[in-house]
Amino acid sequence: MGEWKDEEWGFSTQAIRVGHHRTSEGEHGEPIFPTSSFVFRSAAEAAARFSGDEPGNIYSRFTNPTVRNFEERLAALEGGACCVATASGMSAIMATCTGLLQTGDHIISSHSVFGSTTMLFNKYLTRFGIETSFVDLNDLQAWEAAMRPQTKLMFLETPSNPLTDVADITALSELAHAHDCLLVVDNCFCTPALQQPLKLGADIVIHSATKYLDGQGRCVGGAVVGNQELVGDAVFGVLRTTGPTMSPFNAWVFLKGLETLELRMYAHSRNAQIVAEWLEQQPQVERVYFPGLVSHPQHAMAMKQQRAAGSILSFDVKGGQPAAWMVIDATRVLSITANLGDTKTTITHPATTTHGRLTPEERVQAGIGQGLVRIAVGLENVEDIKNDLARGLDSL
């Protein structure tokens, strides 16, 4: 059990069993291999490994049994042929772009992506002659109008950060493939427990494993999932040469996180639904952004392509930045941090943290106002979460 993958296994079984190839010690739990290198039985075997004629471990920068266990398990959960684990979510995006693009290529990206992703596209990829156009996530005509002969990649998050806009993955994949283009979806907020973009037509899925795949805020890591040609060859080649490597210990922590992923994501979603519905009733709140609300403009789409709404919600506080900061500073249970995906509920002010490096114009395009507060709803007692937010809202 665990040394093979039964295609009939359910999600939770795969999340617990896939990828563990037991050693001669017969261990029940997945082992950690904290080694930099591996020993070969002969010079001929070493040559065959390095040339790629024979599979096997070479050097932990790009081959490690613990990391491979995580890669095989996440690939199974996403429905992909293979996975490449990386040192962070941002290095996963960078490795994907480096492996699949070249000078003169063009990216179309949603405005509604993580601030560091925007910086990567605008500040660093441009140095290598790769240009990015930004469009409204839900405007299919805008995506099509931005197409060029040089467009090779479409990039998006769904739900988006921090406004939880939801994209029609199937429609965007059809558009991408009609123009001989790849669709890359950041699935960080939903994870494969709630959404599987590859089954909806996406070519590549990106993860910040730091978030919900871990689930307890312990380690930093990333992953790219897709087919053998795009991920197993092109992205893996970047990892092998440039080395944005996931450590064996971090991979082991993520493996433990995957075991409870489905349970956690449904529990997160239940808490978030309660908090979002409560926030909609508060007079100090102008608007709540959460896919589980009927008031959300893409509610129907979210319920169609996601199994649950997820845990991320945002809301506009009346009074702008001063009011938003007052709400944040009044909390005693919630953690004031820009990270998310933790059992602990986190709260932040996107305009001055996660998206603080964007220009004012870029923030306006992304819809991020000064009164916006983002919450990643955790697994605490939901009444305690509501009471903590009420303390801040009542102070306004």
Q: Per CATH, which architecture of the largest domain?
A: 3-Layer(aba) Sandwich
Portion of residues within helices: 25-40%
Low-confidence stretches: none
Major beta-sheet overview: 7 strands, mixed
Strand numbers in spatial order across the main sheet:
1-7-6-5-4-2-3
The CATH topology of the largest domain corresponds to: Aspartate Aminotransferase, domain 2
Observed structural traits:
396 residues, Aspartate Aminotransferase, domain 1, 2 domains, seven-stranded mixed β-sheet, five-stranded mixed β-sheet
Tell me briefly what this model is:
The chain has 396 residues and is an alpha/beta fold. The protein contains 15 helices and 12 strands.
Question: Could you explain how this protein is built, in words?
Answer:
With 396 residues, this protein is an alpha/beta fold. It has two domains: 11-259, Aspartate Aminotransferase, domain 2 (3-Layer(aba) Sandwich), CATH 3.40.640; 263-394, Aspartate Aminotransferase, domain 1, CATH 3.90.1150.10. It is 40% helix and 15% strand. It has helices at 11-17, 43-51, 65-78, 89-100, 115-124, 140-145, 169-178, 191-194, 228-242, 248-259, 261-280, 299-305, 320-330, 360-366, 382-394; strands at 82-86, 106-110, 131-135, 151-157, 182-186, 204-208, 222-226, 285-289, 312-317, 335-336, 346-348, 372-376. A seven-stranded mixed β-sheet has the order 1-7-6-5-4-2-3, with helices on both faces. A five-stranded mixed β-sheet has the order 8-9-12-11-10. Helix 5 (115-124) links the parallel strand 2 (106-110) and strand 3. The longest helix is centred in the last third of the chain and has 20 residues, at 261-280. The N and C termini lie far apart (57 Å). 51% of the residues are buried.
